[in-house]
Design a protein that fits this description.
Blueprint (H helix, E strand, L loop, with lengths): L5 H5 L2 H29 L9 H17 L7 H14 L3
């Protein structure tokens, strides 16, 4: 039987633990991704012509994490973010 009472939902330790894991993951990852997005946005160098594409990719990744709390970055997404960080870190 499902319950709509807040006390019943919060008394389920596994649900609360899962919510906490999702929250802490997003709290640790999202600020770093936002910082990378800002570095890309502030880029003024002419030797990085793919700024728009990189901004779009970061926007997509960030929105996906915000809209899907259980989502985790994939290995490919992490690799791409690391490449972008190395590319824009001196901005």
């Amino acid at each position: 039987m499902k319950s709509n009472k807040l006390i019943d939902i919060l008394s389920d330790k596994k649900k609360v633990d899962d919510l906490n894991k999702d929250y802490h993951y997003r709290q640790s990852v999202l600020p770093r991704l936002e910082e990378l997005k800002n570095k890309i946005y502030l880029n003024t160098s002419e030797d990085t012509p793919d700024v728009e594409r990189d901004m779009d990719l970061m926007g997509f990744i960030i929105e996906d994490l915000k809209n899907n709390p259980r989502h985790r970055l994939s290995r490919d997404e992490m690799k791409k973010c690391n490449e972008l960080w190395r590319k824009y870190k001196n901005v």
